[in-house]
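lol ok so funny story. i was supposed to be doing the assay writeup but got distracted and ended up predicting the structure for this chain instead. priorities right. anyway since i did it might as well share w the group, maybe its usefull for someone
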Amino acid sequence: MDKAAIIGIGMTKIEARRDDWTFADMAFEATRKALEDAGMTIGDIDNVITTSNDFWDGRTISCMAVGDASGASDKNVSCVEGDGTFGALYGLARTLSGSYGTTLVTAHSKGSQSVSSLITNAAFDPIYNRALGLDMIGACALQASAYMHRTGTTARQLAQVSVKNHGNALKNPVAQLGMKLSVDDVLKSEMIADPLHKLDCSPVSDGCCAIIIANEDRAKKYKGKPVWIKGVSMCADAYFFGDRDLSTAASLSKAAKQAFAQAGINDPSSQIDFAELYDAFSYQELMWLEGMGLAGDGAAGKMLEEGAFDIGGKLPVNASGGLLGGHAVIAAGLYRIAEVVRQIRGEAGAYQVKKARTGLAHGVNGLAGQSHCVWILGKDK
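and the output, tada:
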């Protein structure tokens, strides 16, 4: 693929509740940080992509609440509804089109002002499924059970993901929910939807993230340390639950293979140095790793027990704490991209992984991983 880089990142601290901030306040803060990081002014930005969701924001055309704060005045601006990785994919497409040299992408969410069970219930088919009262937690509990049944993954292995990622979040000043836990702490926490305990589930969060994408020529003009985009792909699976095998992640496998091919990666388990995955629930880290071929089918739990996914392990996963450490819904995937950039630059501080030349960032849209977006970022072009 043509060369483009991420040259600026800005993240607000992920918090349980920010009543003192509007959506615009968050977007302005993240945008300001990204511009400062890149050594740019808003005048250096050619176009803006905002990523939001009307249901989560509680208003129609939710992008209008953050357009000006994202620097969109007098610029071409477009809106994406969904996870921030998909907004960034659209921003990359605009940059590579040749029409724009730089693109600013923002994504925001205030889960504290939402009722997630009602919002995610509305994602189900209105004729056959919605009236059953299912929400995202119930859907993912069904998926966790199917995955565990197929692979033999245990509840203790799921709990160990929670222990690892909450522990990693203690080292990340941007994370919301760092905790020192034991496996028994997780298993003794409230059962939310079998087999998912409270500490298997990501928290309700507020936050905003921004990144700046530049083509090769423009990337050289600013002080920001460019992290090069090596490959990107997304793929969507069937909408109806009954039309797909919940125990596998077919759309993720396809997206990952396409992203790896673009990046020239033929052995991802050895060529990917670390990963930031969309772990809204503990089982997802293991299931997504297997779906992308970063772990053998049913082998991720054993690798976890052996320390392979620890910060000092063979393949550090969610060194930042992931979504279990803070889940600003729409912004979650864009935070993953920003965290990979931070690692590749060597700026992750206490949670810096030793080898960070090639990293993977991942985002999800839809119920129980209906669609996935995979990014491969690298230190070199």
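The longest strand covers residues 206-215. The mean pLDDT is 96.
back to the writeup now i swear
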